[in-house]
């Protein structure tokens, strides 16, 4: 079977703390891909790059350094301001993966978090030009948040591959998102008792592989 997964994908979210990093880890592990988070905000618990590297156990050369590494767990524009930094989109250049590997790119926060006084996360996604997997929570409120995010991506002419729902399974919310968002829910990742490479690989095989392979 040949994977029909795009060469480079941007993992975006409807909000912060809704499972972008977990989804990126599943994709990185399952595809044996390379990972890059252009903007990291908050260093108290380490970087998302280090967390994914630890839990996927892939070689160090699969993980690319951030363009901006900011100390405070705030919106990028606010975290950068506290350090006297201006986030310049022209400085954010995606790495080229080696040996034909895929690149998984993870955003910071939701789609409309400001990066500076002029640009938002959607502007960075548009600049990079990669299709998006939108990550959302599965619970109450996700229909509104997800549909608004999908509308913003459409308004910016950004290709959406589909949605990933994180949290307890909720068939009603999934059905509504697919119907009204005119989008596929690619995967539903339920609560996990343990996160390690075998778990991530199992999720990928069960949730993504059938959808992203041509028989």
Describe this structure in words.
The chain is an alpha/beta fold and 215 residues long. It has one domain: Rossmann fold (3-Layer(aba) Sandwich). Helices cover 34% and strands 20% of the residues. The chain is built from 7 helices and 11 strands. The protein has helices at 20-31, 48-56, 76-82, 121-128, 142-155, 171-181, 197-208, and strands at 2-3, 8-13, 34-36, 39-41, 63-64, 68-70, 103-106, 132-137, 160-166, 185-189, 213-214. The strands form 3 sheets. A 7-stranded parallel beta sheet has the order 5-3-7-2-8-9-10, sandwiched between helices. The mean pLDDT is 93.
Quick description:
By secondary structure, the chain is α/β, with parallel strands linked by helices. It is built from seven helices and eleven strands. The protein has helices at residues 20-31, 48-56, 76-82, 121-128, 142-155, 171-181, 197-208, and strands spanning 2-3, 8-13, 34-36, 39-41, 63-64, 68-70, 103-106, 132-137, 160-166, 185-189, 213-214.
Q: How many distinct folded domains?
A: 1
The N- and C-terminal alpha carbons lie at a distance of 6 Å
Please write the CATH class name: Alpha Beta
Taking all Cα atoms into account, the compactness measure Rg is 16 Å
Give the helices and strands as they follow along the chain: EEHEEHEEHEHEHEHEHE
Strand order of the largest sheet: 5-3-7-2-8-9-10
- Which structural class do you get from the secondary structure elements? alpha/beta
Number of DSSP E strands = 11
Which fold does the CATH topology refer to? Rossmann fold
Binned, the helix content reads 25-40%
The main β sheet shows up as: 7 strands, parallel
What percent of residues are in strands?
A: 15-25%
């Amino acid at each position: 079977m040949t994977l029909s997964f795009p060469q480079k994908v941007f993992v975006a979210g409807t909000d912060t703390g809704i499972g972008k990093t977990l989804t990126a880890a599943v994709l990185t592990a399952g595809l044996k891909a390379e990972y890059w988070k252009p903007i990291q905000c908050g260093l108290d618990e380490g970087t998302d790059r280090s967390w994914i590297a630890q839990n996927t156990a892939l070689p160090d050369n699969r993980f690319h350094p951030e363009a901006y590494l900011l100390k405070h767990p705030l919106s990028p524009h606010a975290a950068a301001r506290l350090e006297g930094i201006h986030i310049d989109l022209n400085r954010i250049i995606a790495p080229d993966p080696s040996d034909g590997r895929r690149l998984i790119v993870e955003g910071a926060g939701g789609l409309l978090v400001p990066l500076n006084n002029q640009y938002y996360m959607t502007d960075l996604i548009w600049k990079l030009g990669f299709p998006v997997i939108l990550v959302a929570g599965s619970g109450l409120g996700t229909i509104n948040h997800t549909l608004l995010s999908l509308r913003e991506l459409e308004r910016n002419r950004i290709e959406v591959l589909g949605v990933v729902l994180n949290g307890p399974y909720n068939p009603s919310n999934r059905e509504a998102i697919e119907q009204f968002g005119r989008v596929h829910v690619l995967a539903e990742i339920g609560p996990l008792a343990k996160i390690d490479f075998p778990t991530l690989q199992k999720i990928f095989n069960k949730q993504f592989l059938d959808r992203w392979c041509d028989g």
